[in-house]
Hints:
By secondary structure, the protein is mainly alpha-helical. Helices cover 69% and strands 0% of the residues. It has one domain (6-113). It is built from 6 helices and no strands. α2 (44-62) runs antiparallel to α3 (69-75). The longest helix is centred in the N-terminal third of the chain and has 31 residues, at 6-36. It is elongated, with a radius of gyration of 19 Å. Residues 123-129 have low confidence and may be disordered.
Amino acid sequence: xxxxxxxxxxxxxxxxxxxxxxxxxxxxxxxxxxxxxxxxxxxxxxxxxxxxxxxxxxxxxxxxxxxxxxxxxxxxxxxxxxxxxxxxxxxxxxxxxxxxxxxxxxxxxxxxxxxxxxxxxxxxxxxxxxxxx
Length: 133
């Protein structure tokens, strides 16, 4: 199944990807609170890693308009999942976000034919012949 208007579908899916990345960034910002209450505590390195990841996720949400923005968001899913090393509940939270991200890629593949490719115009106007003015 392909979308009747691939350009519009791609736009909607980029918006969903951007929203997911923003939510991931917000979730990462909650991790320092959990680490501070754990046995190891929060040190400067852990805080820096989490803040940089949160900023990268939020910046990647703004890059979804670019052709490579979806790939950047996909690459950031690995560090998000690895935050589980800092706080065990993040294995679950990041896993849920990863499943959502994979679902978005699957829907994109079904609607556009490729999870990362750029959509082309639907071509419906060409099939209908010349349009009266």
